[in-house]
Amino acid sequence: VQRFLNWAASEKLTPSKVLPATETTLCNYAATFAGHTAGGTARAHISAIKGWTIHKGQPWFGGECLNSVLNGVERRAPPSSFRTPRVPVKESHLELLYAHMDLDGDDGKELAIVAAAAMMFYGQLRAGEVLPDSSDLSCYNPREHPIVSDLGEPNDQGTCSLRLPSTKTSRNRGESASIASQESIACPIIATERHIKFNHLGPGDPLFAYRDQQDTLHCLTCSNVVDRCNEIWGPSDIPKISGHCFRIGGTTHYLCRGVPPDVVKALGHWKSDTFLTYWRDLDTLASIHLHRFHAQENYCSHLYVNTL
Length: 308
What we know:
This protein is mainly alpha-helical. It folds into two domains: 2-81; 91-267, hpI Integrase, Chain A, CATH 1.10.443. It has helices at 2-10, 23-31, 39-55, 64-75, 91-100, 108-122, 127-130, 188-198, 222-233, 244-256, 261-267, 274-277, 282-307; strands spanning 159-164, 175-180, 209-211, 217-219. Strand 3 (209-211) and strand 4 form a beta hairpin. This is DNA breaking-rejoining enzyme.
């Protein structure tokens, strides 16, 4: 908002053209982003002005003309404004993590880290929905992050349900994620059960809390997981990852194993086609799904011939 006000002052606009801003004013301001920033950045600036305007009790005049200008800004975005796609975590990365961590010692934090990493990967979970920003136990909010009792018992197929109290798309209504057992050494269910038992967690404790050497309980944070993973993976020339890399890694993992995209989308609670922008290893995915398509066509042709 301050950037907008500074721009308005430099343009010597009268107060009546600033609050509320006319659509002409908004279009002229939006055009200043052309060739300099990504379209999403320009839209975020305009959105901030809209929120400020409404908060001040004034009408909002942004319409089709403004949207056209923003589309033009997006088309003229320079290459430098686009963020390099984040590298997905892979199953082999998790196995490397397991091999280099002290899981047979007396470090409860290590067990919590591998459990959280496996859960986020195989459950396609957003890091912020299961891990808090602070390690302070008193700051943990069970209405925002899961506690031990939110993790259900495995069913006959080895899948358990994890209740997420608050999610990016469902807010405080929450959602339930399906966590399936895996044959990999990094099975999320086995890792989490082992972590809960070792750290002596009760039903009301944070799902990924751990005990230090003094038996004091701490909350595992996203930074704890990401920093430890980068520390171990760095020497193997694995690019640095962020918390979101576990989610997009899990999505790519299932797609590369032939799980239908609509099933992966449902399991990952992807609410829009943003899901498509996070696909990685597209060459492999194309090969897998085209092969399945041709196999189905050949099978259907075979059935048709046999019915003649």
